[in-house]
Amino acid sequence: MTATEPHPIQAKAALFDLDGTLVATEHRSRAAWTRLFTTHGLPVDDALLATFVGRRGQEALADHVDRFGGPTVDELFEEACGYLMGPDSPPPYAVPGAADLLADLHGRGVPLAVVTSGLRAHATELLAHVGGADLFQVIVTAEDVQAGKPDPQGYLAACRALGVHPADGIAFEDAPAGVRAAAAAGLRCVALTTTHPPADLAHADVVVPDLTTLRWAQDADDR
């Protein structure tokens, strides 16, 4: 279901992806991956870049490492991170509605988690754009799991840490890999079309353009 008008949601906990869901970063990630491939003389297009969205960088790079002819996945990832954090990298910014929704949920005492394919230092930096890492009881990053999205490991770990059964939680995502991870964990999922068209997110329970259309219901009867 695609929602463009105010949409009520309610759960015992809210679990958020970060890049593209709370903070817009796809533009700078695309720039970094593009520079990595072109620096090594390799062609890059939108279809290739789409394979990186919502996944751990090392796992996405592993699909292409043989084309680079020498560097390891870790070496290539470190190089890409250098481009991402460089002074000429385009700045990130909050997804519309993100800061207000988080402030509202935090004020209500709703348990909050971040489940991101990025690194912890990256996550801490980005969360400053939406109110800070202190809003969240749990932050699960790429360093905390053995397999990234679409594997549900990160979401399951976050639910355990929050003490919430997945069926009682709701995930917020922007990429097909994240939607699949949330579903595999047993979470309901709200998907944002910030980085993908609605058709790519069809397996989510609700699809919205950003976080401005969401309203947290007082109880289940308000949903």
TrEMBL record:
GO terms, molecular function: sugar-phosphatase activity
InterPro entries: HAD-like_sf, HAD-like_SPP, HAD-SF_hydro_IA, HAD_sf, PGP-like_dom2
Pfam families, per database record: Hydrolase
NCBIfam families for this protein: HAD-SF-IA-v3
Protein name: HAD family phosphatase
Source species of the chain: Streptomyces cavourensis
